Amino acid sequence: MTTIQVLDTQGVRVLTFNRPEKRNAIDLNMYQQLTEYLIQGDSDNGIGAFLLCGNQDCFTSGNDVAEFLQHPDLGPEHPAVRFLYCLTELKKPLLAAVSGSAVGIGTTLLLHCDLVYADDSARFKMPFVDLSLIPEAGATMLLPRLTGYQKAAELLLLGNSFDARQACEYGLVNQVLPGPELTDFALQQASIIAAKPPQAVQQTKALMRMGKADLQQQMQRELDCFAKQLQSPKAKEMFLKFLQR
Ligand code: COA
Prior knowledge:
- The chain is of the alpha/beta class.
- Helix content is 47%, strand content 17%.
């Protein structure tokens, strides 16, 4: 069974998390596949936009917690690190359709999406601090910019979950849709963008995403802290606690 499904349709590359038995937890192989599909699609003239989806119950439960224990070395070749940098380099718009849980990187990766749609079952959570970790994906820079400092501090330090309506208020989600309409609507929006003049679309995105160097520097700072925290006894205890429930 392929854990990342890929479908090219209407000028859109749809990438779907497909590991439902682990609530779409992203393992190394999935990061690798995502990165390859994104890099390849970014240089494919037949693709004008990307759409990330999960299944009805879960977008993704975030990084595979077991792999935090098995692969704590976060060098530049680590598949999760390559994926995160790939998100910052994407020329073409990235959209997401979120149903069910979006935990950890499942929420922070949305900060790299250009448009995000969610249905009324969506629940977002960034429990990094509770796991004795720190946020990644540039969230310590992108989230305060999006929501204002205090709201970002609330979401990252308290780590409470929030729903689609709140995510919309915070600016993380563009629109909340009824579950059965979510994927079709997101695909339709992506295909509308994909049909527009590609140079104009890509330059508009690049201009809105100016400051990439600062973002990548912040991501590296986060990864340095994250790598140290991964090795801490408290983090290991929290991972085992989750896995041995
Ligand atoms: N990594 C590895 N395994 C995961 C996982 C993750 N991020 N998220 C869920 N799983 C596994 C569970 O261990 C369980 O495996 P098992 O059936 O072999 O015991 C299976 O997926 C189902 O998970 P469960 O928690 O029972 O499902 P649920 O529907 O009750 O809850 C979530 C779903 C997403 C709310 C819950 O799994 C969760 O909170 N996961 C988040 C883990 C996390 O902290 N991620 C962030 C890392 S920074």
